[in-house]
Amino acid sequence: MQVTFRCPPELESLLPRPQRARQALPDWLRAMPSEAEAPDLGFAVRTVKQCPPFVDAMASGFVMPLACDLRVEAGRFVWDWPVPPPGATGPYTRAPISCHFAEQASGSPLHDPDALIVKFNSFWTIALPAGWSLLCLHPINRADLPFTTLTGLVDCDSFSDSFVHFPAVWRDPDFTGVLRKGTPVAQCLPLPRESLDLDCAALDEAGAETFAQVQEALATEPGIYRKRYRARVDRPGQAADPLAEEPGA
Fold this sequence. Notes:
This protein is of the alpha+beta class and 249 residues long. It has helices at residues 27-31, 52-58, 205-220, 224-229, and strands at 4-6, 19-20, 35-38, 43-46, 62-65, 70-73, 76-78, 97-100, 116-120, 125-127, 132-137, 147-149, 152-154, 166-170, 177-179, 184-192. The protein contains 4 helices and 16 strands.
């Protein structure tokens, strides 16, 4: 699928570019062990690093990056970003982050008068083929980030001539440090706009037999999902396992 990103010409040399999510996996995932001792069990267990659904979810779609370094201290956000004045594209916000009023979440579980809802401003337009929308959500399994990006669905086949921004709840009021330029602030998954036809029924005799065989294989053969059922990457030159793309992984 072709996903097209465009930015104002005066920002092209300053902005980090969106990346395929498989190229932006966090260092902790690559560094974590494949097995860990479980004292309650008395033996080692496989970690989520060996769980293909966990890793494949993190490697799906693309991530949108923070535009510049963002220093956070005592609830204040500071940046030093030499953004030139807008050119022929006309005016747009030049701040990498802004905020929402807490009242905008009134009536929802998100509402907390003491919580800060920020908005990570993006400077890229996003265009998808006709009939496709973009699901924007928090970078998958990234509980290490001090914020939680809210989930939204944008029809980027038609809304492709303006920026898509990413609101987030700032979860760590005590956070002090720097969010680096390029930090993923949203993970995006293109979705076809199709109606769903849900077919629910009991397994028939053949289906029950196959189910029993799969259950037996899952219980007796480690890595059966990875070996038999995990879809292979169909682009030439890409490894099926996103962690295998890194030397020494």
